[in-house]
C-alpha cells in the first residue's frame, strides 16, 4: 500500500504538467516541437527562467494572449533557461526572456526582453 507521502508526491508530479498545459504553454520536447512545425501552424517558444524578473513579467502576458480565441491555433512551448541549453543552442537563442514565433515551419520573428503586451501580441500575430 503506497504511503500518504508517496501519493502526495505523485499527485504533485502529475499536476505540474497538467497545470502548464492548462495555461496553454507546454514544456518543450523536441519531438512535439518538430511535430508542431511540421503541421505548419503557428508556434511560439518562450525561453524563461524562474528567477528572471522579465520572464515573470512575460508569463502572465503570454497566458492572457494565448487564452484569446484569436490565438487558439498557436502551439506554445516553454524552454527552461537553466536546464535546456542544448535546445537553446538548437534554436540559436542564448538569452532568457526570448520569445520566438514560427509560421509554416519557419521562424518568422523573435524578441528578447519585451514586456509590452501590444508588442508581444504583434510578435505573435506574425505567426498567424
From TrEMBL:
Keywords: Signal. Residues 7-128 form the Thioredoxin domain. Residues 1-22 form the signal peptide. PROSITE patterns: THIOREDOXIN_2 (PS51352). The keyword Signal applies. InterPro entries: Thioredoxin-like_sf (IPR036249), Thioredoxin_domain (IPR013766). This is Thioredoxin family protein. It comes from Chelatococcus sambhunathii.
